[in-house]
Amino acid sequence: MSVSVPSSDLIRAAVLVLWAGAAMADGPASDVPAQAPPSRVVSINLCTDQLAMLLAAPGQLISVSHLASDPLSSSMVEQAAGYVQNRGGAEQVYLMHPDLVLAGTYTATATVELLTGLGVKVVQVPPADTLAQVVGQMRVVGSALGRDAEAEAMVTRFQSDLAALAVPGDKAPAAMYYPNGYTAGAGTLSDEILTLTGFHNVAGEAGLTGGGILPLERLVMAAPKMIVTSTPYPGQSRSEEILTHPALRAVRDKAARARMSDADWVCGTPYLLNAVRGMADARRALEAAE
After folding, report:
1. Is the domain 166-289 a CATH 3.40.50.1980 member?
2. What's 64's DSSP letter?
3. Is 151 helix (H, G, I), strand (E, B) or coil?
4. Which of 76, 256, 275, 286 has the highest count of CB atoms within 10 angstroms of its CB?
5. What's 84's DSSP letter?
């Protein structure tokens, strides 16, 4: 299979090949014993950043992506401050001499191709669309780090906490509504969290599968009893104007609202429990008010 790589990346690749001989003398990934856990791990994906910070042995993880330090997307900003940041570039990562790179399946394809071609082990972790896949991610990253026991302990705690947060009984209509009218429909992690915590997703009932746009008119007609929105970004954005539309305001006036931290919804980590707990509390408050 042929892979199209931008010319700038081809130039970088040529330079990296010239460096490779000297770098190998410092200990290439191929010199690491097959059964030995990696000792120099670099993560270039927000979600693997956080799982690695939670699971890695002291000193095992040496770098995380710059996104791990963004409070609007990361739940582990303080922890990320203790690691070298990277921007996912092949040159930067390679010169750290990693024996394992953790990436997402959609992370910088050119970077992954170049690192793999240079003999660096790369483990790609797909995004989680279900709670079962969240558990799978924990185990994949734990296994890659040689920390299976720690990952299994994390899974046990996560599943126990999820079970305790479930809200039984009738489901109330709810909507996730973000800039540009973006929402999460059926078959998404957000949809499953809504179901677990006593809601049914109006976007899924409107026929939306996966992420997509829910027209404001459809939202108004659905008359949700709960609207979940995100924290506005600094400054003004045209994409956020829909969140102040008079029609949406009218729906909000009749519904309960929950403003959640985006960071707790983004990745399949134990911090997802913050989102679940927030929705469970919101459902119980709604029930008490009825």
Report:
1. yes
2. E
3. helix
4. 275
5. E
Strand partners, 257: 227
Interior CA angle at 64 toward 101 and 274, to 5°?
115
Q: How many CB atoms lie within 10 A of CB 96?
A: 15
**CA-closest candidate to residue 29, choices 122, 98, 102, 88:** 98
Q: What is the pLDDT of residue 289?
A: 79
DSSP 270: T
| CATH number listed for the domain at residues 7-128 | 3.40.50.1980
Backbone angles phi, psi at 234, to 5 degrees: -60, 150
Helix (H) or strand (E) holding 174: strand 172-176
Give the residue range(s) of CATH 3.40.50.1980 domains in the chain.
7-128, 166-289
**For position 95, what pLDDT does the model report?**
97
Would you say residue 283 has pLDDT above 90?
yes
The number of residues in the chain equals 290
pLDDT in tens, 63-85: 999 999 999 899 999 999 999 99
Measure Cα distances from 123 to 23, 64, 137, 250 in Å.
21, 14, 11, 47
Q: What's the pTM?
A: 0.82
